[in-house]
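Q: Convert this sequence to structure tokens.
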Amino acid sequence: MYVLIIYTLNVLRYLAEYVERPMPQKKALLQGIKVIELSTMVFGPAAGVVLSDFGADVIKIEPPGIGDLNRNWHKIAGLPVSEVPYAFQMTNRNKKSVVLDLKTEAGQDAVYRLASKADVFITNYRLKAINRLKIDYETIRAKNPKIIYALATGYGQKGEEKDKPGYDTVCYWTRSGIEMHLFPYDGWLSTFPFGAGDHPSAMSLFGAIMSGLYQRQQTGRGCEVSSSLLANGTWANSVMIQAGLVNAEYREKRPRDQAYNFISLNYRTKDEKLLKLTLVNSGRDWAAFCKAIRKPDFIEDEKFSSSEKRIENMPLLIREISDSFAKENMDYWLSRLTAYDIPHSKVFNYDEAANDQQKIENNIIVPLEHPEYGSVRTVSSPFDVSGFEKKEPGPAPKLGEHTEEVLREIGYSEKELAGYLDFENYS
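A:
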């Protein structure tokens, strides 16, 4: 009994010490990685923001004057109206801004000194500008053989179009065939959302950077990695393009009521909202779907009882399903389709997309405390790594906010700093 008491006291003492001991903090995955980002607009900066989310120190170099064009792109006609520079904030949180004029010898020297101490160098400048400003891979590698040089282009590095200006609207959506595929039967009504091709393309560039860092770990050598909007758009639509590569016969476009299949159409409900149906495994789910839309007789109906019959009578089937959905409000159908395990979604507007509880619970939409705009929210990068925490989202930097701090860190003297700290030089 005495031994048991002593043992119990020792266990309690250990537990007390353990509770008092501070819990180890989770380390940022990319802590200690220094990134120089000489990029503008979205493609390059979006890759940089993912690196910053995981703890990398990202130094954004901007030209004097207006800096990155994306600082003011939220003011473009047609985009949502706000005094908050939401476009720039989205892809530049937690970065440091340094203003350098790369057209000057002093500016070039500063870039080289920064690159000599960096792990990653990101640019999406056009190829001619990269060569003119002497920030090409060979030049940067000469300053730092271990650097991972990440190049983001519109059309790639070869071919007649390599020097053309490229944005996701033309390189990603149009050249991939996606725009043609989605083009409404009766004419185009709007444009693609801002940056909607740049952001997925940036994930490819991020993956390339991480692959470069991995190979450096294995070999001790740096390398160039690259990705293009043209390649990413092609990858996004690769199934349809692959069809063409095997000489498949593409079908002509049809209006909705003559669609080839009912399984992925939008249906309007009684309260004039749109419901998206995605009945991928229609063979398995046909009976459950018929019950869900209160058409159990369709299961055995000779016009619809088999896949072949449904194809033969598709216009009639689409009309019947549309009529069914039009008899009840959206909430009714969301509940009923969920109960029958039918893949579906309400077609969200932007307010609904931003306040989606499923996104909030999965830390897709996360809080952000901004010193100027207060408590707001932002979109997190789209993956997590167990055992590591993302950096808490912070504000995007003001133009040139960290010029002095960063240049001091790489050894600039007071005399060298004098030219950079004149406000007119970087604001």
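The longest strand covers residues 57-62.
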